[in-house]
Amino acid sequence: MADYVANALTAVARIDATPRRGVEGFRPWARRIDGLRKTRLTFLSKPPFVNVVAFLVAAAALVTVPRCLIPLAPIAPGPAIVFFGLGMVAKDGLWLSLGMALIVGAFWLAKQLIF
């Protein structure tokens, strides 16, 4: 009975260590990204542009599923949504602009592929 408990605790300790290693591996990248966040072009993080960003995020999420039929097409909306998130949290219009450019480019590419 004691061996079973010891083995179970060892297994739990291994499972618990896996996410920590992942977080520690990502920490340098998070610091680099954090260094890029600044308060720029703040008018893009205020209404009415917030509504435009919300619409673009919803549109990107909705078009991701049908785009799965085209190889590699669903990749573009993902980073755009990440850029929108970074821009809204940091009130950084540059990240919001990058997200808008990615979404516009993704829609243009999809139009070229479909029509």
Tell me what you see in this structure.
With 115 residues, the protein is mainly alpha-helical. Helix content is 76%, strand content 0%. The chain has helices at 2-36, 49-64, 77-90, 93-114. The chain is flat. It starts with a helix and ends with a helix. The mean pLDDT is 80.
Write the layout of secondary structure elements.
Layout lengths: L1 H35 L12 H16 L12 H14 L2 H22 L1
Structural key phrases:
4 helices; flat; mainly alpha; single chain; 115 residues
* Helix-strand category: mainly alpha
Helical content stands at over 70%
CA distance, first residue to last residue: 67 Å
Strand/helix succession: HHHH
Shape: flat
Q: What is the number of E strands?
A: 0
List unreliable stretches of 5+ residues.
none
Largest sheet: none
Summarize the structure.
The protein is mainly alpha-helical and 115 residues long. It has helices at 2-36, 49-64, 77-90, 93-114.
